[in-house]
UniProtKB/TrEMBL annotation, chain A:
Origin superkingdom: Bacteria
InterPro entries: Epimerase_deHydtase, Lipid_A_modif_metabolic_enz, NAD(P)-bd_dom_sf
UniProt domain NAD-dependent epimerase/dehydratase: residue ranges: 5-238
One Pfam family, short name: Epimerase
Name of the protein: NAD-dependent epimerase/dehydratase domain-containing protein
From TrEMBL, chain B:
InterPro entries documented for this protein: P_lipid/glycerol_AcTrfase_prd, Plipid/glycerol_acylTrfase
Annotated spans, Disordered: 1-29
SMART domains: PlsC
Protein name as catalogued: Glycerol acyltransferase
Ranges of residues in domain Phospholipid/glycerol acyltransferase: 103-220
Organism of derivation: Nonomuraea glycinis
GO cellular component assignments: membrane
Keyword field: Acyltransferase, Transferase
One MF term in the entry's GO annotations: acyltransferase activity
């Protein structure tokens, strides 16, 4: 059934892995990878072999994407191109444009296309926000009290709005919206993984948030299945179980430095300029109140469970970075 | 690393060959002292293993953030002297608490500070072998320290989603439907149940089909007799009330020591909800009636238990 798959965001780690897995699949006749920047080179930057993926450099914010879809008779679109942190050079405005306008262009192209039958969009559990007034565990149908008001999470919430609009207008297209917990694994480079590799972890005094991760292997597997079969709907994707931030710090053998929240905000504003670690207000709320989602709907839909629990995903990340608890490894 | 090395360096003090006999000799010595030494060594090994697990982060918390080990070994350990020695608390009719499966404990709330929640937790944990998962006000989860201590000891926010989730997982969930109205009422209104919210707890129990266990706590009313209030200051601090007791704020921090009243906790006969259709949870009349019924049962339990206890501060008063 599946013939030609378009994957956006292939110059980033998970996007590249999804493209390469699909390219290795004999049922998939063509994989077209698009991104605004060329993929990192294999030898130098630890890039991932895209296999027989045909790379097309397209700025998603321009209508060029429609031509790519029309020219190749694309039937499945996997939209991975969501930037989670502003890059040092371009800043927040470009990030928002990339995320929101990019998605609008892509969905506009899909709406016009006669060949597209399936759309898979990567979103994030950050759309639930983090609040002391919300339930401890989010299911897909829950409306959060304090939805995200800025940053990546706001982009994702807007993207989701456009995706729902698209699904309404094209009921013949199977639309899957995947809300991923924070990616974790050897190849993941995100604000959160950079946070855990710091020598000292600033935390918010008096709070110990619950965190949840999804291993990159599981994320790739979910996206592969979604790209090959119809599973319309919105699904949370997270590894089983939770870790507390204090527990993560102990497992990583890092000291935590509890600061009052205004101090963390101040520090965040300073550090954000370096572009190394993201201490946005969103991040600060996550670091205070945490976030846990229920991925039961995904598991029953796919009849499959993520192989890595939250704890196992984090341990795999620690192993690959040579981080270990004080006093040696855990048994 | 360090712990693994410790026994080796002990053995290295004598010559290497003697290492084995030395350790052999030690074993009978500890055997002679039979239980004491053995127990002590076991306790020490247990403690070391515990510290090791804590330091390396090798423990489990559930999705609500409940850390069963920390709760049992550290936090409840701090409360046990208060329960046994200070309040001489007794739990009655423990057989009414279901041994397993989901159930909803509904109790009266009093005492200015929610010490009754902690004592109820000790009673159920130690005497009924059940972890109590309380549903708390959102104020708790906004405050530093309190919020993560509440989560680590197994409690969560009072909302239908969390209640339903816990009950369906077969947990013992506890609620104080009076809320701040109950815990912050003046001393003159002691043992008079306040209004029971909107009956959300009844709807949650019906939806999950779990029994409701009416529970009366006597003794909590006397720990901080609230004889006045500072509403303006409380509003300023964002608190529901700021109490004046005979000793607070007069004696400063010393006024925070609870008075040693005698406590009794009695569990009433469970009220079944599995006869109702889950859709009945959306029938306001039924929910209100059941809520009233439970409120009356608890008030009766409370009155009987108060008579049975007699003086609040025996043998003096």
């Amino acid at each position: 059934m599946t013939h030609t798959v378009l994957v956006t965001g292939v110059s980033r780690h998970i996007g590249a892995r999804v493209a390469s897995v699909l390219a290795a699949d004999p049922d998939v006749s063509r994989v077209i990878g698009v991104d605004t920047v060329p993929p990192p080179s294999l030898t130098r930057d630890g890039g991932i072999s895209l296999g027989r993926t045909e790379f097309v450099r397209v700025d998603l914010r321009s209508p060029d994407i429609a031509q790519v879809i029309a020219a190749a008779d694309v039937d499945t679109v996997v939209h991975m191109s969501l930037v989670s942190a502003p890059s040092r050079g371009t800043g927040r405005a470009a990030m928002k444009e990339h995320n929101v306008i990019g998605t609008m262009q892509l969905l506009g192209a899909c709406q016009r296309s006669a060949t597209v039958r399936r759309v898979v969009v990567r979103s994030t559990t950050a759309v639930y926000g983090s609040s002391p007034r919300d339930p401890a565990v989010f299911t897909e149908d829950l409306e959060p009290h304090d939805g995200p008001s800025h940053g990546y999470a706001k982009d994702a919430a807007e993207v989701e709005g456009y995706v729902r609009g698209f699904a309404r207008r094209r009921p013949d297209v199977s639309v899957s919206l995947l809300r991923f917990a924070n990616f974790m694994g050897p190849g993941v480079d995100s604000p959160l993984t950079r946070y855990f590799t710091q020598p000292v972890l600033p935390t918010v005094f008096g709070f110990d948030p619950r965190l949840q991760f999804v291993h990159e292997d599981d994320a790739v597997e979910v996206l592969r299945r979604m790209a090959k079969e119809d599973h319309p709907g919105t699904y949370n994707v997270a590894g089983a179980g939770v870790l507390l931030l204090s527990q993560c710090a102990r497992r990583a053998g890092r000291l935590s430095l509890p600061l009052l929240s205004p101090a963390v905000q101040l520090l965040g504003a300073m550090v954000r300029r370096t572009g190394l670690v993201d201490y946005s207000p969103e991040q600060l709320r996550l670091m205070s109140h945490g976030r846990v989602v229920d991925s039961g709907a995904l598991e029953s839909e796919l009849g499959w469970k993520p192989k890595f629990s939250t704890g196992a995903a984090f341990d795999d990340f620690l192993r690959s970075h040579g981080l270990r608890p004080l006093g040696g490894a855990r048994q | 690393m360090n712990e693994e090395r410790a026994p080796v360096s002990d053995g290295q003090a004598p010559a290497n060959d003697e290492q084995a006999p030395v350790s052999d000799e030690r074993v009978p010595v500890s055997d002679e002292r039979v239980p004491v030494g053995g127990e002590r060594a076991d306790a020490l090994a247990g403690l070391l293993a515990f510290v090791r697990r804590r330091v390396t982060g090798d423990y489990e918390v559930d999705e609500f953030g409940y850390d069963a080990e920390l709760t049992d070994k550290v936090l409840l350990e701090l409360l046990r002297p208060l329960y046994h020695r200070w309040f001489r608390a007794e739990a009655l009719e423990l057989k009414q608490v279901p041994r397993d499966g989901g159930a909803l404990i509904v109790a009266n709330h009093a005492g200015t500070l929610p010490v009754d929640a902690l004592m109820l937790q000790v009673a159920l944990h130690d005497e009924a072998g059940r972890a109590l998962r309380l549903l708390g006000a959102d104020l708790v989860y906004q405050l530093p320290m309190l919020s993560h201590l509440a989560r680590k000891t197994g409690h969560t926010l009072a909302c239908p989603e969390d209640a339903d989730r816990l009950l369906r997982q077969g947990e013992l969930v506890g609620v104080f439907p009076e809320g701040f109205k109950g815990v912050g009422k003046p001393f003159s209104e002691r043992y008079k149940l306040q209004r029971f919210g909107r009956g959300g707890f009844v709807a949650a129990a019906i939806r999950a089909g779990v029994p409701i266990v009416p529970t009366a706590i006597v003794g909590s009313e006397e720990i901080y007799p609230k004889i006045g209030d500072l509403p303006a200051l409380a509003r300023l601090l964002g608190l529901p009330y700021l109490p004046i007791t005979p000793f607070f704020p007069l004696l400063g921090p010393l006024g925070l020591v609870p008075l040693p009243s005698k406590w009794l906790i009695e569990f009433g006969e469970p009220i079944r909800t599995d006869d109702y259709d889950p859709a009945a949870a959306d029938d306001p009349m039924l929910v209100f009636n059941l809520t009233d019924q439970i409120r009356e049962v608890i008030q009766q339990l409370l009155d009987q238990l108060r008579l049975r206890r007699g003086h609040a501060f025996p043998p003096f008063l």
